[in-house]
């Protein structure tokens, strides 16, 4: 049997990169931004203890604050405009004639009806977390039915493989379901739990069992495996759909955040350019020149829009990288099967 049972949760599949993955995906974006800015501020202030040329001397002789902060104005205005423009281009894909919108609606309703028929339910929930919950719950029930279908009528080796597969599927499903109960779309929780359900491996393992033991499996067992694969194949498009919606949601949040931050940042930079020179803010605080404190803070404010952009794009790019393949394709080396060839 495969090693899938040890690599269902995304953080486990990441191995030693689990902490990095948590920072990239799970850490609150504003806390991430604050941590990056605080680190930059600490480095800038700490550099004043390295015996380098004092900042006040640089400002008095070379008008340092002007050269430091003047470039921020064009960068912030240009960068914010470009990001908002890109966002609008992405969102423009949602615009279309009534015929296109009607076709999208029909496809969405058709997909729901197909899942409802497979789950034998009248109506599936409209909220993404509840919808994924019902789909994963259906996979768990199908896995249990599969185990009952092979009980007693098949060899011990086959029953052992099926038992391992079912245990893996049920355990993964229960973990995801528990987390989806409190998940709300708009936060990253829904996408995180969708990533934690390792459906690709389960499709591969089910198809492999069916192919290797086709002569041994009863008709009922083959039917249950086929239904299991069908449900798992529904999960892929559902996850991709909600991922797309989440990306659009995050791009909107990114645009709003940049618009909120850009005006205060430009105002702070203007204050530095207009009122701060080599004679401003004499004296020291905690052994550091007051000009160093203020200039470092101004620099942090100036790069804040850029850092916000980075932390949002890092999560979007990280999710996109880990969902490049749909279906029974596994791109990570950690998921490589032991019996290649």
TrEMBL record:
- Keyword Transmembrane included in the entry's annotation: yes
* Membrane-spanning parts: 30-52, 64-86, 257-276, 291-314
Q: Is-annotated flag, keyword Membrane?
A: yes
Q: What keywords are annotated for this sequence in UniProt?
A: Membrane, Transmembrane, Transmembrane helix
Matching entries from InterPro entries are given as: DUF7972
Highest taxon of the lineage: Archaea
The molecule here is called: Uncharacterized protein
